[in-house]
Amino acid sequence: MKYTNGRMNDPFFFGYGSLVNRSTHDYARTHPAQITGWRRAWRRSPMRDLCFLTAIPDPACTIDGLVAAVPDGDWAVLDIRERAYLRQDATHQVRHEINHDPEVAIYAIAPDAHHAPTSKNRILLSYLDVVVQGYLAEFGEAGVARFFETTDGWDAPVLDDRIDPVYPRAQSLTSNETALVDHHIAGVMPK
User: What's the rounded Cα separation, in Å, for the pair 137 and 72?
Assistant: First the structure.
């Protein structure tokens, strides 16, 4: 990565989960994008009891997401929000429509710090709702379908916390959005 005075030059990050939902942050310079060489996976970590999304290397996969400029090139707030993850250079793996070539990082859990979910590690439905709402807004229903197709770990149980959301950045969904989430969950969960 190129650094100026210890900071990356015009840094952006690639979001592939809740950061795709613009209602969960106030990053102004955002653009739909794709990254090659990664796929999403629900994982558990010693740092959290619940499952959460991470990116795992997969040379055959491309996932949709959102790139956003890091305000003033200062990673501190974003690093706190993404504290369970490592920030990694992804500049040459990201396709976007920005009119220059910014430096781009992706947050992913260190390979030795996450594990496949168990029956005790649940996916928060309020979190999944936020993610799907973001993909619907950015990529339409086809983008939602691609999200489910390019994400592993659907054998984790889902905790329905819609009435009393545990996820701190939970959003209200329309009945159509809720039905879309429920339809896709039914299609990926073990029978």
Answer: 26
Looking up residue 12, the CATH number of its domain turns out to be: 3.10.490.10
Residue 139 belongs to domain spanning: 3-188
Tell me: pLDDT of 2 over 50: no
Contact 42, 53 (CB under 8 A): yes
Task: Name the 3-class secondary structure at 141.
Answer: helix
- Angle, CA of 41, 65 and 158, to the nearest 5°: 40
Q: Give yes or no for a contact between 70 and 107, defined as CB atoms under 8 angstroms apart.
A: no
Give me the amino acid identity at 191: K
pLDDT tens for 147-167 read: 999 999 999 999 999 999 999
For residue range 118-132, list pLDDT tens digits in order: 888 899 999 999 999
Q: How many domains does the chain have?
A: 1
User: What would the 3-class secondary structure string for the chain be?
Assistant: CCEECCEECCEEEEECCHHHCHHHCCCCCEEEEEEEEEEEEEEEECCEEEEEEEEEEEEEEEEEEEEEECHHHCCHHHHHHCCCCEEEECHHHEEECCCCCCEEEEEECCHHHCECCCCCCCEEHHHHHHHHHHHHHHHHHHHHHHHHHCEECCCCCEECCCCCCCCCCCCCCCHHHHHHHHHHHHHHCCC
Q: What percentage of residues in the chain have a pLDDT greater than 70? A: 94
